[in-house]
Amino acid sequence: MTSGRLSQPDRLLPAVSLVIVVAGFLCSPLVSGRPLESFDVYNALQGFAQLGLLALAIGLTMIAGEFDLSVVGTYALGGILAVEAGQSSPFLGVLVAVAAGAAIGAMQGGLIARLRIPSLPVTLATYIALLGLTYTMSGGLSTTYRNSDVTLWVDQTVADVFSPRSLLTLAAFLGAAVVLGFTKLGRELRAVGGDRRASRVAGVSVDRRLIGIFTVSGTLAALGGALLSYSYASANPDPGLQPLILAAVAALLGGVSLTGGRGAPLGLLAGTLSVALLAQIVAITALPDFSTQLLYACLLAVIVAIESPGLHQAVDRLRAGRAMTTRRWGSGVRTSGAAASAGQHPRRAAHPKEKEDDHDRGDDHRS
Amino acid sequence: MSGSATVGPLDADVWVEGLSRSFNGVAAVRDVSFAVGAGEIHALCGHNGAGKSTVVKLLSGQLAPDAGRIVLRGEAVDFRSRQAAQRSGVALVDQELSVIPALTVLENMLLGDIHVPFVNRRRWAAADCRRILDDMGLGHISPDQPLSALSIGERQLVEIAKALSQKARLVILDEPTATLSDVETEHVFSAIRRVAGLGCSVIFVSHRLSEVLALCDTVTVLRDGRSVATTPARDLTVDELIVQMLGAAPRRLTATRAWDPAHAPALRIEHLHVPGRLSDFTLTASAGRVYALAGQLGSGASDVLRALAGLHPKATGVVELHGRPLPFRDPVRVARAGLAFVSNDRKSEGLFLGTSVARNLVATRLPRLARAGVVQSRLERRTALALAEQSGLPEGRLDDDVLALSGGNQQKVFVGRCLGGGDVWALLLDEPTRGVDVGGRAEIHRLLREAADHGLVVIFASTELDELLELGDVIVTMRDGRVVNRYEGAVDEALLMRDMTHGVDAP
Predict the structure, then answer these.
(1) Looking at chain A from residue 292 to 321, which residues have their Cβ under 8 Å from any Cβ of chain B?
(2) How far is it, in rounded angstroms, from Cα B244 to Cα B238?
(3) With 50 as the cut, is the pLDDT of residue B507 above it?
(4) I need a labelling partner for B111 at 20 to 30 A (CA). Which of A84, B54, B159, B506 fits?
(5) Where are stretches of biased composition, namely Basic and acidic residues (chain A) (predicted)?
(6) Is B316 in Cβ contact with A323 (below 8 Å)?
(7) Residues 241 to 300 of B: which have CB under 8 A from any A CB?
(8) Same domain (yes/no): A189, A337
């Protein structure tokens, strides 16, 4: 099974996307004409810090088979609360932001789990309501953060390439990886995302897990917003949809499935790093801004194509058709030999992927 | 069952008294009482709609009773959730496959088990899992394999192994063997006997009556939501059990049809080959006869049907339907050529569960019910009515969701959908009566026989000996992806069983 590890999509997709982007990053001097510096890596990691907690929040809810649209709203609210409450003590600001994010997440999770409402309308409503709230709080204008010591501190360089902000973001990913990888929570979360009815029958407290994951998602989003506003020394009442879209791209590149049940924090980490590095490549090579979007689209297309069952089936069909033509004209020795060897242990010899294709309609069957 | 018995039978581990539950005013279970001793294997029998599944849901914490009580080891319990039942030591194999394809085999085994620690101890758990899998005859499966790579039967075995390994006081198995072959069933039975030997009570729900009598100590029969009788299994025969369940013995089908020279060969299959699944399958089938493919899970029997239906993209070979090459490897073109396939998984590959019976019946023939792309509702209604009558479905249920129907009636909808079009030439069925009660089974067999009489080629794959012998005019036995033998009459259960389990290369 060791050889099969990497072929699983939740490992394969983030690995491929990270390899492509890192290769591009290393090749960027060919275009820019100047060698890479530690500053470039630092910048990429700053981009990662800006996006990371949001991507982690969305990715975790996606693993549980839900989608939290409200994270951008919580992100904005977290920023504003941190600025308002944290002028003297940044910790108090972060604490207030995180508490508000957790409360919003818990409320949404409660509605979704107990009333069995789909997450899309609930979180969409919360997103709109939170935008209204941030506008009311700020009057539609950016709120300035005056504690410049904090602003300098969160973005200072640590070990040439890191900053406290990117280190904190990294720590959140590693923390999530440890909790999901080494406790039964990870298993239960993916079970809830994979098949909710079966999870209930198996004895998983589905409701509690859902409330928990939305609370975590709200907390992470608010923390991300708070750190960003400290870094920019101002909070924006409406960050737009760009952060949400990039976070979703990061989650998909990270091997998280839209149907739920698949994905891991380390994959999300690789996906988010891919997005951040790609933006940095565009900056280094001084390509026009719009090319970032095109590159994201291309990378996503490659990743989606790798795992598409339709592509696998088309290839199989093509091969079978070719095999038949050669058999019709050839002596048939080759095919009969293959048949004999395959016939010995058909069940063991059967390729796992092929079985998966057979049953994939069954897997998607969820209430 | 009045108030006289306020204390349960002393030796009973599980004691159910006066259990009742209704849905929307319709009673599903009324005043059901029975007791299961420690180490006893207790069967719940009854034909579809008798209330077995509801009793199982009440006992496993998925539903709360309206009245009555459940006593576990002298203590009245009130389960509000599956977790509560699990804490009291009730393990369940649900009627529907309840393992999660997105997780690995090991992760599925650990899921929901209250004895599993919060922090994973992988090595310890993997060793345990290895032993459990070996006991269940799954030596070829690794604990780290994703469940989605396993066949349906293997997934079912994993779920059973999981429930039996949870060190429970009571294990409930609801139709555990419906998707299993006879060899696999034998593994399951010895595992059940093993846990019962350790003092665990077992409740076993099944439609396969001979299995029930072979495995269980006691049989409680439910009919129309009431418990009719509780009898020691050794005092019962299958026929007596059927009488208890139905109130009368069902009609048996007529004997095998001989080959009629008036019918020319209709479906010619030559050298059908599916890599890793099926090698060199050849069969010439004529219209008007029923062909049975007899084989356990993995024998290739259902792969023949799936390949013909266009669901194995890697299949090779030559197939002709009434002299024209069949474009197999493409499900849509196969269906257009007049070949209808009834999958063994009617829930995910067959019916639209949340849609009405009428809609399901006409789902495959919408283009012919439409004028300029708009479905003519009157024509649709008339067609649905005709099909419902032909397939023996109660007319009053046409507007019900398929989900609300019993397994037998759901299967009738699935089969009925393929009938009576005038454009279907061959009918392929994979396990046509899986999860269907005795009465429903006879009706489906009658439907298939009628379809053959109307000039269709009917080919079905099955693992049930009774069904093969009752329905098949020609029986082809298969094992390990190859044909073992071909019979036309003059065959018995023992012969079939030997072919299916030992094959040609047995000494």
Answers:
(1) 313, 316-317, 319-321
(2) 10
(3) no
(4) B54
(5) 351-367
(6) yes
(7) 273, 275-280, 298, 300
(8) no
The residue with tokens 């599925």 is: B108
Yes or no: is domain B265-347+406-501 CATH 3.30.60.50?
no
* Strand pairing category for A143-144 and A234-235: antiparallel
Note the pLDDT tens digit of each residue in B236-256: 887 788 778 776 544 443 455
Please indicate whether, in this complex, the C-beta atoms of B120 and A183 are within 8 angstroms of each other. Answer: yes
Residue B156 has, within 13 A of its CA and on its CB side, a CA count of 21
- Preferred mutation among A11, A187, A189, A311 to probe B, highest tally of B CBs within 10 A: A187
- pLDDT at res. B491: 74
Distance from CA of B3 to the nearest CA of A (A): 33
Contact A359 B481 (CB under 8 A): no
H helices present in B41-104, as ranges: 52-59, 82-87
**pLDDT tens digit sequence for A292-308:** 889 999 998 988 888 77
- Provide the residue range defining the domain that includes A275: 10-306
Query: Does residue A28 lie in a domain region?
Result: yes
pLDDT for the residue numbered B467: 85
A205 with A337, same domain: the answer is no
**Distance (Å) from the C-alpha of residue A196 to the closest C-alpha of chain B?**
9
Does B410 reach chain A within 8 Å, measured CB to CB? no
With an 8 Å Cβ cutoff, are A199 and B116 in contact? Answer: no
Q: CATH number, domain at A160?
A: 1.10.3470
Range of weakest confidence among A233-247, A347-361, B48-62: A347-361
Evaluate whether residue A2 is within a structural domain. Answer: no
Interface confidence, given as ipTM, is 0.78
The 3-state DSSP class for residue B94 equals: coil
Residue B86 near chain A (CB below 8 Å): yes
- Tokens representing A145? 């953060």
Looking at the structure, give the CATH architecture of the domain made up of residues B12-246: 3-Layer(aba) Sandwich (3.40)
Beta-bridge mates of residue B41: B202
Q: Are residues A213 and A78 in the same domain?
A: yes
Cα–Cα distance, B331 to B316 (Å, whole number)? 15
**B310 within 8 A of B328, measured Cβ to Cβ:** yes
The answer to whether B119 contacts chain A (CB < 8 Å) is: yes
Range in A203-212, A338-347, B392-401, B407-416 with the lowest mean pLDDT = A338-347
Put simply, whether the predicted model's pTM sits higher than 0.90 gets the answer: no
Tell whether B316 is within 8 A of chain A (Cβ).
yes
Q: In Å, how far is A324's CA from the nearest CA of chain B?
A: 6
pLDDT of residue A341: 41
Looking at A267, A283, A306, the residue that finishes a domain is A306
Q: How far is A361 from chain B (nearest CA, A)?
A: 6
B150 touches chain A (CB under 8 A): yes
The residue assigned the tokens 């737009």 is A240
Residue A330 has a pLDDT of 46
End-to-end CA distance of chain B: 58
